[in-house]
Amino acid sequence: MDEKADRGWISPSGLVQLARVDLASAKEVFLSRVDDIDSWIRILDAGKPYWDNVDENALASSHSGGSAIDFLGAMAKQAESIRKEAEESTKGPFSFDSTAKVYGAITLNANVSISPVDEFDPNPLKTIVYNPDRDAEYAKRFEVFDLELGRLIRQIHEILSRTTSHPAKSVAPDTRQAYDHLIRILVPDDDDVRAQSWWKPNPEEKENPNQVTRR
What we know:
Blueprint: H1 3-6, H2 12-27, H3 34-53, H4 56-60, H5 63-87, H6 97-114, H7 123-130, H8 132-145, H9 147-161, H10 167-186, H11 190-194
Helix pairs in contact: 2-3, 2-5, 3-6, 3-7, 5-6, 8-9, 9-10
């Protein structure tokens, strides 16, 4: 028995379509979440041209490709459970937003590093998942606050919007640096801290009890 038959194989494109159909059915009941569900469907539709044209055998033959297919299956099951909640007239709660964003990232990464599809245009999906207009607005605000911090934020968003194989891993050092930089800006001067009524020297610091530490 081949691998596809052993797994009860549903093609990647079929899994995406199953998720889309289940979400569309759920939308008819969860009226308060129509906008959210519509945004999830837009993300699915933006990535669907990739999954419709990917070489399934090439994808399934690699560890990363197999993981991507497993994720699509889990995503389809989650959409199915949302539809069933709707059929049972339950109120949830449910969340598909983070899963939809992961789907977008997996689609973009697979098109670069696992099994590229020449006909697939990643830009619409990148626009939906990473929302460059919103990111640019945040970068401008940080630049007004501090030029170096703004540069770091802009660099983080640029890395996330590329189709690199591991965008989150690539951006981790800059993200850590941005938080450290923000903390340094917000922390008051040592003299201002020592002037506060709650300030007390640290008797455990024998050489410099008046030193201001993070604690």
